[in-house]
């Protein structure tokens, strides 16, 4: 596939989009873990079991 003179721009755009999507996935994963820890701490304070 030949993108002509725009190959570097197209490749850079795809790379940047992949980087942003990867960062969003990692951020969501880390936030999910933090929310589960916070929920567990709140349940421990009330003396409840999950």
TrEMBL record:
Annotated transmembrane regions:
6-29
Q: Which GO terms describe its biological process?
A: cytochrome complex assembly; heme transport
Can you tell me which residues the record assigns to a coiled coil?
Answer: none
Q: Which InterPro entries match?
A: Haem_export_protD_CcmD
- Entry membrane topology: Single-pass membrane protein
Q: What is the annotated localization of this protein?
A: Cell inner membrane
Q: Which UniProt keywords apply?
A: Cell inner membrane, Cell membrane, Cytochrome c-type biogenesis, Membrane, Transmembrane, Transmembrane helix, Transport
Q: According to its record, what are the GO cellular component terms?
A: plasma membrane
**Major subcellular site:** membrane
Function, please? Required for the export of heme to the periplasm for the biogenesis of c-type cytochromes.
Entry similarity comment: Belongs to the CcmD/CycX/HelD family.
What protein name is recorded for this chain? Heme exporter protein D
**Lineage, top ranks:** Bacteria, Pseudomonadati, Pseudomonadota, Alphaproteobacteria, Hyphomicrobiales
> Its gene?
ccmD
């Amino acid at each position: 596939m030949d993108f002509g003179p725009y190959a570097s721009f197209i490749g850079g755009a795809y790379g940047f989009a992949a980087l942003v999507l990867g960062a969003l996935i990692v951020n969501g994963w880390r936030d999910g873990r933090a929310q589960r820890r916070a929920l567990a701490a709140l349940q421990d304070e009330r003396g409840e079991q999950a």
